[in-house]
């Protein structure tokens, strides 16, 4: 075990798997010589060379499309979108080519697409998005969103080894703010939920960056016993763990940072409303961003993104229900 | 119209006037004709089945364009990888997909290449080294470039090849693939199948300058070839492949041809001037190759009968096959962790040049 | 009033508005000389000329992006995607340029994007999709989905007049199968829900093609009184009408044809679970397509798309709850 | 590197050697210098504010590229419409956006162009005929083409103009816009701002052939101009605009320049050879125009002082302005039905040619 940031844990996972598996290839804009916009691949080009740490043209469809081709003939490309927001430019290749290849013709597409996502640092409307729900709504793609350094490393390795296209969400606010113990060497974190904190009065169900918001918001809530469930994987969605949390706590607050309509949280709420209904002692409460682009200016952004206070207030009200 | 079809002389000289092809044996030349005959016979049979309501959805064919897919594929090696498009049934045949499998595919039967999961021309049999197309055109150009990128990175003497139409060149993915292939100098062959129309849209509403002239702007050659001359298409592709394998980078080949049927079975193509169709009927690629084979002393009629019989037999087999089991509709969304993940296998490579 | 098909009603609406407003311009692949893949604009080029019924290059980003530019300087483009599925190729221009322009800089983008959507005729994985939820999850876009000829005409006119980007979903299965009385001349259908059938025992909440499936599935269900709520508009979502239906019936089945995860139905279910919880007498049941591409072969497709039987069975079970 | 920066002689001749520009008065030439000085002073001031933590998020500037936006915009008429990119602050200044408004924008203040909804260079003031950029590059090429399409459809003598970088040319939208503009022969001017790098990526990893050479493949001219000579950029744009207005169609102008700062304030650009920066420092566009103005007898120092004072004054105003009200964060997602929907207004057009 060594303590490291969330960002270094991703780097560590990528480096570990690249050393173990010559088929792994990194592709992206400015990931080589520059080491990536967030320095996730800093120094990689020195160890692995420009062929395996490929600085690509500025072309997201190109990155994804060529990665698909390379995967089909046996490489294991890991694509970086410089910011998650730019994935919209490679959207068609992801949902129509990668997502449907196996179902239609039996060919697995082992690519991993890293999406540095989320707001909170005045990135504005084009550098703050959480687009995971778009991909949850596109069959054939797995979608994961680790919240801790340990999981970040274990899930990037598992994503690379998974023979299917995996959308790997990495919240930019965790990069340097979140530190934790990370096991040495190679290991995989399963695509299942994790109980971040046990509890019995109310369950906060969330993932990615919001796990930390949820923990902070509920670490002491007038002595109430609050469970925090970290989904970790959105596709597959750990329905058993979600329903178990509902059985255990009977009250649920679902938190995600994305715009609320048709977000991951909507799917979780719908699941509970259909299959956890009898265990509910109150409405299924959601906390998410309202349906607007994420604004740039700090006071505006703070008014839009789910905050510790909003989550705490939502929990307090539901506890009183 | 801004096509170079005007620039290249199209239409057969008599076989006697032609010098024999440098890289094709008599058997190759007969094989090329046979593949084109087979493609046409299967598509005509499928069109009947469609009219009889046995082919669900819509149906697309490559009538009149047989030389493009057959000629180009004839030049591919077993280890090459192909992304085959919707006018290119001949490519599947040359690579070894069975007629009965194709007819089953059209009819959505379980024995089809996709077991009924996808329809008509939307398939590729990875057991023959092919990756099936998606409808979004020309997305497969990037997939082909990516396969070529992997070959180059691994230092393998293989190439990737794909087709796309004149209309498809207007999409951004055309540009991203051309640019990528040029920057990385990839062993990929792009075949622009210029059949004068994109659905109902004539090429002059698609581009102001023929896209083959854009290749230079990406740093590699663009060549125009008579797309109704199967041996010319073969030769252009053979040369491009030789360059690719030798590290010479990509080639864009424009095969000038004509879509002789509607866009799909539903399309009466009222929008196409009758005269244009008539002009092109005289340039039928099968007639042209038949004349050559006859000149070689080959028995074209016997070949036609043989092919017709083969297709009848295949139709019986296909019609006898069951539809897929509804219970399987949600299967295979994800690939199991432990299973092999590189599934493409080599295809047939009938060209005599690979056996010498 | 004249009886006409859903398809002719869309044509009628487009023609009516084009005659009334010279700013209206149609753009798309094969919509002019050919009259559109589905003949929605058949003959339009003769009346309005090639400038206003524009056959475009095969380029979805181009269609949407140039339409945005034309709208910003005062035209009112109506873009046709030949099939809804191809909208993935214009996705970035829609969500990032059109969707955010007004919020960011105050410029309205009056474009309408017509998406011929849905399955049921062996269209296969690339000609059967219902992508509306992707756009519901992209702030700044309105999303409508009429189910009757009268609404199809009224909503295409309202969409063109609405100064915002409107995604207009037209289910291909309604084109020729659904007929109805359509008012003459110009009128607008509001972006609000409509009670397709009154009822008090159970409410089926749905939209688009599934409205007809729901009506057929429930027209006599052992004498139960079944309400069918036709949402018509997904953004804005008529939350008041949805919650009123829950209050009235206490039991809800939500039906949509799209792949279930993060679909429109998930948002409706989440809304009810949070704000209609106290009115519920049973779980919020959903019927949707499972998360796979829509297969081509009839028996496979029938196994995936929501059917009259599946909807009826879901209602029967919930009634017994 | 596959840039034509090698092809065109860059670097000033002495003003004395130059023949006076045909279409610029002395006032124009001073105005060009003043706009460049103002752009640089504002960006330098903003960089300080950024270092002081008063500019949230990141900060991007166009240091060394001032001639490209200023020169091109000087040739635009009031009724023209522009999509301004992230190195082009000079365009906003020439069109009439106030320095205080720009500094407020950078600091996320309510008085900024977007009232804090978007940041740094992501803005466009429709009151000056500009449409703000989106980050996704080069999406605005299609928007500009669309505006030009509307002008042509309505028979208006106006044009649209937009900028984009060398890296942006690799995206599919570049191709779709170039092709669309070519097929419809639109009055649009595309300015390729070739500053040698895309973030850290040098142009030879972006394209094998300079994109200016691709214009011919779309059916319109591509011209290369010294991007550090503001009068040369003006003249190229003036000519392109004249053609556009006369129905001559689009022009692609490559302005060869150099990004003299990092990609953003955070970027030390270690990846750029020091020598390259030194070479380009000698070609500073402001120094070059200053020499010309001095030659005309203009007092450059006075101009600098005047600009410095203006920026100080603007900074005071901006710093005094409030941040936006959080309660407004969810406002204006949709435009009201009854309100006017064509909001772009004409901008300033200082070129003397419009007043003659
Ligand atoms: C991205 C995309 N948009 C629209 C379509 C619908 N469509 C199917 S085929 C076709 C015409 C294609 O023309 P071309 O590329 O010339 O190929 P051809 O059919 O002529 O061989 C169109 C518009 C599509 N398949 N992909
Ligand atoms: C589609 C897209 N992908 C990635 C980015 C991230 N990004 C911002 S600027 C930039 C480099 C742009 O280079 P260039 O086009 O040459 O413009 P320059 O900054 O050099 O003026 C990149 C990759 C982006 N803005 N848009
Ligand atoms: Mg064609
Ligand atoms: Mg650049």
What coarse outline of chain B follows from CA principal-axis ratios? globular
Could you estimate the helical fraction of the residues of chain B in percent? Answer: 25-40%
Summed up, the helix count of chain A is 12
C-alpha Rg of chain B, in Å? 19 Å
Instruction: Name the average pLDDT of chain A.
Output: 98
Beta content of chain A: 15-25%
Structural class of chain B: alpha/beta
Spatially, the strands of the biggest sheet of chain A line up as 3-2-4-5-7-6-12
Q: What's the main sheet of chain B like?
A: 6 strands, parallel
The helix/strand series of chain A, from N terminus to C terminus, equals EHEHEHEHEHEHEHEEEHEEHEHEHH
Structure classification of chain A = alpha/beta
Low-confidence stretches of chain A: none
Largest interface: A-C, 48 and 48 residues
Number of strands of chain A: 14
Quick structural overview:
The complex is a heterotetramer, with two copies of chain A (321 residues) and two copies of chain B (356 residues). Chain A is α/β, with parallel strands linked by helices. Chain A contains twelve helices and 14 strands.
Give a written overview of the molecule:
The complex is a heterotetramer, with 2 copies of chain A (321 residues) and 2 copies of chain B (356 residues). Chain A has 321 residues and is of the alpha/beta class. In chain A, 38% of the residues lie in helices and 21% in strands. In chain A, the strands form 3 sheets. Chain A has a 7-stranded mixed β-sheet, with helices on both faces. Chain A has a 5-stranded mixed β-sheet with strand order 9-11-10-13-14, sandwiched between helices. The radius of gyration of chain A is 19 Å and the shape is globular. The relative contact order of chain A is 0.12. With 356 residues, chain B is of the alpha/beta class. Chain B has 10 helices and 8 strands. Chain B has helices at 26-51, 66-74, 89-95, 99-106, 140-153, 172-184, 230-245, 274-281, 285-295, 300-320; strands spanning 81-84, 130-132, 160-165, 188-194, 197-198, 201-202, 222-226, 251-256. Chain B has a 6-stranded parallel β-sheet, sandwiched between helices. In chain B, helix 7 (230-245) links the parallel strand 7 (222-226) and strand 8. The longest helix of chain B has 26 residues, at 26-51. Chain B is globular, with a radius of gyration of 19 Å. The interface between B and C is large, with 38 and 39 residues. The structure holds thiamine diphosphate (2 copies) and magnesium ion (2 copies).
